[in-house]
């Protein structure tokens, strides 16, 4: 006798719900990575809060710069923006912190370095810009305090001592008030927008200081004769013409008028 096999209908509890994603290997891996990033983010935030608690009651300017920068940069998840004043200690500490591998997905954070011209003397700044694709460097003139912006939430500002001759210490503050942070972010954004990209920043005039360089560019734009411009700058005619030749070569300009136009395009002169 041949046995009969009865094919039963699948019970409702065994039916596949098309609305539930299949637990593929990729799905599980993504879930685990997301969980890891969340845990690391929580741990990092906790470490930062512990560090800030340990700084309470102290003059923040007396806390080692490396400790503050390492703590804040390590906790950054989206953006790190820095004003580099050119101080050797700041350049070394900031570049070291940014060069270390970031935890989890924070390797995708954007980095912006706004440098005063003297900050470019530090080899590590140019090396970081050259090797780190996340890092964008721009150059601006002026006197700006050292500052570190983290995720649009925290700003660390450090000023020069009020009277170095009397042994005055650094003045530093940690800004977390949302309105104050937003105001500082807007100031940074305005300066950043007018700054020159590192690759476009010319090493103009050899030994020329930025002020003298701008005076020459202004003379070129307005059509001053070499004799008048040299007399105004109190240099010999030969020296002035050498400066002009160097500036034109660095700007890639074929004429003096073109040098003035190029200077405006690069933000070296204000647009009138």
Automatic annotation (TrEMBL):
- Identify the SUPFAM superfamilies for this entry: C-terminal effector domain of the bipartite response regulators
Gene Ontology BP terms: regulation of DNA-templated transcription
User: Can you tell me where the transmembrane regions are?
Assistant: none
- Top-level lineage group: Bacteria
Q: Residue ranges of the HTH luxR-type domain?
A: 214-263
**Matches recorded under InterPro entries:** Sig_transdc_resp-reg_C-effctor (IPR016032), Tscrpt_reg_LuxR_C (IPR000792), WH-like_DNA-bd_sf (IPR036388)
A GO molecular-function descriptor: DNA binding
Q: Region annotation Disordered: residue ranges?
A: 1-23
* Record protein name field: HTH luxR-type domain-containing protein
Give the originating organism: Streptomyces botrytidirepellens
């Amino acid at each position: 006798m041949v046995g009969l096999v009865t094919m039963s209908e699948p019970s409702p509890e065994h039916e596949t719900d098309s609305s539930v994603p299949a637990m593929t290997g990729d799905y599980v891996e993504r879930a685990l990575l997301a969980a890891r990033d969340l845990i690391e983010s929580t741990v990092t935030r906790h470490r930062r809060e512990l560090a800030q608690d340990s700084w309470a009651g102290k003059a923040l300017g007396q806390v080692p710069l490396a400790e503050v920068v390492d703590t804040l940069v390590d906790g950054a998840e989206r953006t790190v923006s820095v004003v580099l004043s050119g101080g050797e200690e700041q350049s070394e500490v900031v570049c070291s912190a940014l060069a270390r591998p970031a935890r989890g997905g924070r390797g995708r954070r954007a980095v912006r370095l706004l440098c005063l011209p003297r900050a470019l003397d530090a080899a590590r700044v140019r090396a970081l810009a050259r090797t780190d694709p996340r890092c964008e460097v721009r150059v601006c003139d002026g006197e700006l305090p050292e500052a570190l912006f983290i995720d649009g939430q925290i700003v660390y500002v450090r000023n020069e001592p009020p009277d170095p001759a009397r042994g005055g210490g650094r003045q530093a503050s940690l800004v977390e008030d949302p309105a104050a942070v937003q105001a500082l972010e807007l100031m940074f954004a305005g300066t950043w927008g007018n700054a020159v990209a590192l690759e476009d920043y010319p090493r103009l005039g050899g030994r020329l200081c930025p002020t003298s360089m701008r005076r020459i560019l202004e003379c070129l734009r307005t059509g001053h004769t070499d004799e008048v411009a040299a007399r105004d700058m109190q240099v010999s005619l030969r020296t002035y013409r050498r400066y002009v030749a160097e500036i034109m070569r660095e700007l890639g300009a074929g004429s003096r008028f073109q040098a003035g136009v190029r200077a405006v395009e690069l933000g070296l002169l204000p647009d009138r």
